[in-house]
Amino acid sequence: MSDSEELKFTGERFTPECVREIWYEHYHRYGFAQRLVKGKQVLDAACGEGYGSDILAQVSKQVMAVDIDQASIKHAQKRYKRDNLEFIQASCTQLPFADNSFEVVVSFETLEHLQQQQQMLAEFDRVLKPNGLLLISTPDKKHYSDETGFENEYHVKELYQEEFKALLDRHWQAQQWFSQAMMFSSMLEKIGSVEQSYATDILDQEQIKTDKELLTSMYYVVVAAKKDTYMAVLPDLHIFADQQQSVYNHYNQTIRDYIAVAEKYVALNNKHEKWLSTPILGKIIKFLERGK
Fold it and tell me: Which of 20, 53, 54, 174 pairs as cysteine with 80 (C-beta 3.0–4.6 A)?
């Protein structure tokens, strides 16, 4: 893809050209969503650049993707072409679809960008079939903003967990909640196993705690339905990784670069000390340093 075809990253809408942590977080959500949308009629609400809608369309029967930003929609229409994928400019608070149109509505990192949050959820409820699923995510204000002191200029109204749940409870009584965050860990995977069991050990103040929840929620990802009988069967833990291990490799390279710089500093400092110990040269260096 040429530079002219890439959508410029402004900080508000993710693009596939982003790297490291933000790339992992966004692709992980759509990878998780794939298992819920196979062979189904899907709405991707606030689709942004369109990469996620394309991921969903790989397995869905049909994906309708909407975003309020005209430039994003035009870009997506040009970049992602599938017979079962359509991009439409529209607001999530006023969707151009009939009641009961979709089996799954997906909307990641949208809620915090709107004041009309209840209106948006009411629209999702309207266009979902009675036995449909909502898959939605939003940052946890406590950990995303309060504890870090970070202020996202594009977020209009962030939510605490209880506030997010109160909004969802008005429409969907069955809910499965997932915490999402990046973490550094070592993994053991049973070779050849297809079972979805898992165990955790977490080191806390030099004590290993077994089967404790792994994550402090930076984001919440929720799957919601009208009734428990409509809820999908989901794994307790979902891990996303890339074969290139890009985040770890970046960390590893950064550490190695730091070590190399530190070693050069030590070598130069040792050479400096050696020069200072030389009678004539040492006097000249000390004289010059006093003149700084």
Answer: 54
